[in-house]
Amino acid sequence: MEQRVPGQPEQPIEEQFSQIAKAGYDGVCLDPGVTEIEENLALKPLFERYQLGCMINAFPNKAEELEPLLDLAVSLNACQVNIIGGVMPLKPSSAASVVRSWLATAVEYSMPVLMETHRNGTLNDLFYTLQVLKEVPELRLCADLSHFVVDREFPLPMSKQNEEYISEILERSDSFQGRVSNNQQIQIAINFPQHKLWLDQYLAWWRQGMSSWAERNAQTETLRFLVELGPPPYAITDGTQQELSDRWQEGLQIKALVEQIWQDIARSSF
């Protein structure tokens, strides 16, 4: 919900929670590192007041930093933790050792703990991630495909080989994040006509991933999809540092599109 508009204060945090709840979202995702645990703990009354669930995007910069972030997640009754690790070995085999240690730590906690596909993180790029997945077959992902689209500069239409790579990621994913990129820009305005093919591609991927999840899981399980449209510099701005589109409205549009996909899957699967 950050705006980062030059010269304007951010919207008070309680107003943000209220706006999110009124829009019909089920929860709020926080992005803490270990130095931000206390300020995030202070938000617990707002989650309770507005009856919103909590998801955590955890940013451990050392292997040992995950545990206090998982403790934070427990304190906030978080439904899920996505790890964007700051431990980035050059070799996938070395990353696999770190991932195994994190998964071993996570066993003691009741919520799902996933690794997020994210640039400048442990799973920085597509090919590296595919190798880590082979090394750690029990690893499950939170898929933010925008990072891999930019990383590989995928052209449209997608080649058969590239689709197979993405399918492997989707098969290993138990959660998804809603950002649309093209192959050069990490976050694009989804209503610009020149971006329609990319929006269609992401909707197809989300449908594929969500359908795969539904086939693997019982009806009693919950699939979590995070609408995640970041402020500048994720959001593209003009020469006066104003965003080119209405990010809040785009988020609501993605929410509606994904809810429709899920309704379609539910009708055919359950």
Strand order in the sheet with the most strands? 1-2-3-4-5-6-7
Shape: globular
* Low-pLDDT residue intervals, each spanning 5 or more residues: none
The level-1 CATH class of the largest domain: Alpha Beta
Description:
This protein has helices at 13-22, 37-41, 44-49, 66-75, 92-106, 126-135, 146-152, 160-171, 196-216, 247-269; strands at 27-30, 53-58, 80-83, 113-116, 141-143, 173-178, 224-227. The longest helix has 23 residues, at 247-269. It is built from 10 helices and 7 strands. It folds into 2 domains: 1-139, Divalent-metal-dependent TIM barrel enzymes (TIM Barrel), CATH 3.20.20; 147-270, no CATH class.
How would you summarize this macromolecular structure in one to three sentences?
The chain has helices at residues 13-22, 37-41, 44-49, 66-75, 92-106, 126-135, 146-152, 160-171, 196-216, 247-269, and strands at residues 27-30, 53-58, 80-83, 113-116, 141-143, 173-178, 224-227.
Question: Which structural traits does this protein have?
Answer:
270 residues; alpha/beta; TIM Barrel; 2 domains; seven-stranded parallel sheet; globular
